[in-house]
Amino acid sequence: MKLRQVGLGLLVLVLGGGVGFLAMAWESEIAPTTRPGPGSFDPVLVKQGSDLAAVGNCVVCHTAPGGKPFAGGLALPTPFGTIYSTNITPDEATGIGRWSEAAFTRSMREGVDREGNHLYPAFPYDHFTLVSDEDNRALYAYLMTREPVAYEPPPNDLPFPLNVRLTLAGWKLLFFREGAFQPDPARDDIWNRGAYLSEGLGHCGACHTPRNVLGAARTGEAHWGGGEVEGWTAYAINGNSPAPIPWNVDSLTHYLHTGWEERHGVARGPMVPVNSNLGTLPESESRAIATYVASMMGEPSPEKRARAERLLAQETAHAPGALVQSAGSQVAPRAHDPADRGAAIYAAACSTCHDAGRPLPYGGLRLDHSTAIYGPTPLNPINVILHGLPAPEGARGPIMPGYSGALDDGQIADLLAYMRRTFSDRPPWEDPAAMIAHARKEGVDGVRALDSGSDAPANPSKRETPW
């Protein structure tokens, strides 16, 4: 009898909890509206929305290769399956043409669509919840004045129960905190603007923060501690930044606005469209973001400062084409030694650009200045070695050939080992063979051309030290 009572009690609790969860998880539909005409929006508001959409990189995620802008259909691979971005053009049947401003704001603030469906956090509403009502109004005006495109993206490819959107309410309960951005009164307007853009619409942490097993961004010290996206490493941009030359506000501003910086290299992978979009905005927006990011990085430690001063005092790591075993050592390679094979490959394929001293963005970065060589994994160097940096179409910009057809996996491994040992003070990377094979087989979507944005400096050595 007692066991039956216990069992009934547990059943009541489970059923009650289930009913309570369903009540909490259920979201009402917002009634559809007639699509507002483009002329009903203030052009100033539309321009403001255009700038905000550039910060958020909206067109990048909501445009499939070869597709119409904002029409969706881009495949977003996740550890749980593939999600396809939605159509956010004002088409009434397949887009958001019948969404009211209130429905749009709810999607940004709460991660719920017009019909009351919970949105997958591949749409980063955990960041977009910080966006102000005024800026959501501007974004809505901008999107509603785009070309309507009748296109239905493919259905998401997710296993049960993840294909049931109601389960997202549980994810939100655990990890999502709704609320608009609150400025820090102890900080100035530039810092607060940078925090608002970086943590909110710019959603930097979506790439630069590691995630837990349920796909939520880690918090605390892990915030901005580095992650992986689209087959690339997004480096830590907090106090654990691996950059051998510490960033500061000026260098970050230049990099964000132009896509390159003389002591840190050129943008690659998913960072390229971020830079391209920021480059269309006033430089003050990049400077605000840089101010906030630099504060997250903090002052460099005495060890990092000393290392940077030592690197900046050196004219170059090698003479172009020199065959060396380690920095400053002129030793001819022996073919049976993998490290020496790496030196020979470097001399033949890399040195003439990376050791020539030609300033960026058209010259090769000195690799002892490269964050990639100091990074936690060789993933980014592998991608660049295999696929290069393509030339921008109809514009000037940096370029590097890919070596996927010239170097086999073993040669790339030898080259990586040589570069890591020669150009950094970090321990060797663990055997990268599997990573090289996977990158060669799968390729990456993030190898994109970069318009340099501005001319290379005539003499970079005349600039001040970076702190």
Topology:
Layout: H1 2-25, H2 43-56, H3 58-61, E1 75-78, E2 81-84, H4 101-110, H5 125-128, H6 133-144, H7 168-175, H8 189-201, H9 205-208, E3 227-229, E4 232-234, H10 249-258, E5 260-261, E6 265-266, H11 271-278, H12 283-297, H13 302-313, H14 338-349, H15 351-354, H16 371-374, H17 379-387, H18 409-423, H19 433-442
Antiparallel strand pairs: 1-2, 3-4, 5-6
List keywords for this structure.
41% helix; Cytochrome Bc1 Complex, Chain D, domain 2; two-stranded antiparallel ribbon; 3 domains; globular; two-stranded antiparallel sheet; mainly alpha; single chain; disordered C terminus; 467 residues
What is this entry, summarized?
The chain is mostly helical. The protein has three domains: 151 residues, no CATH class; 108 residues, Cytochrome Bc1 Complex, Chain D, domain 2, CATH 1.10.760; 148 residues, Cytochrome Bc1 Complex, Chain D, domain 2. The chain contains 19 helices and six strands.
What is the share of helical residues? Answer: 40-55%
Count of spatially separate domains: 3
Outline type:
globular
Percent strand equals under 5%
Strand order of the largest sheet: 1-2
Supply Rg. 25 Å
Mean pLDDT across all residues, rounded? 87
Q: Kindly, what is the distance between the CA atoms of the first and last residues, rounded to a whole number of angstroms?
A: 76 Å
> Structural class per helix/strand content?
mainly alpha
| Subunit arrangement of the protein | single chain
Number of helices: 19
The topology string of helices and strands comes to: HHHEEHHHHHHEEHEEHHHHHHHHH
Number of strands: 6
Tell me about the biggest sheet?
A: 2 strands, antiparallel
Instruction: Note poorly predicted spans.
Output: 5-21, 323-336, 445-467
